[in-house]
Amino acid sequence: MRLVFFFATHREAAATLATVAAVEKAQGSGEYLFSGGEIHICGMGMGAAQACASKAPSAGCRWVNIGIAGCLEKSVAIGTVLQVGTTSLLQWDVERNRYGYNSEETIVLDDSLAAALFSAPVPMYAPPDVHSALALVDMEGYAFARVARDNNVPLSMVKVVSDFCTDTSHATIRENVDSLSFRLAEVVVDFAKSSHINAGH
User: Which residue of 64, 67, 129, 172 is surrounded by the most CB atoms within 10 Å?
Assistant: First the structure.
């Protein structure tokens, strides 16, 4: 099964692209090939993620959405790698004057995994109203999950904790994203090795 990795930004993907010696398909395309599969840089936000996933190869593929995410549990260290079990769409709750989610819009990826990802239409600099022991927040994951579900493509989602969804998150992310890029590269290499072994090579 061919692996297709999706990153939101080039800064998140930088260490991976260098580590696996990825080669861009066409200059400026944001799509790269390497021995373990493909890497696509989709851009930030759910619209960009949906557009990227909609044109990505799907037959015989496993998609892996990988990148940084905020974490609402402050005891989790920045740099922690978490595989996501469910993903939900955050929406503005007028009555509560904050972002919350509709459980009917939750997509289950693997119910054995504790981490729950909540995708927002804007950067989260305050905690949304969610109920999960291990909640993560990003801006793309739900879109990938929805396109994967609608097209029957198996999807894994791996996030590295970058911040805690506070008013200092923007500065924290800028400070840490380059070092976290190396954590993401380790995940890609591990996925590629595991896929290679499971294919019987």
Answer: 67
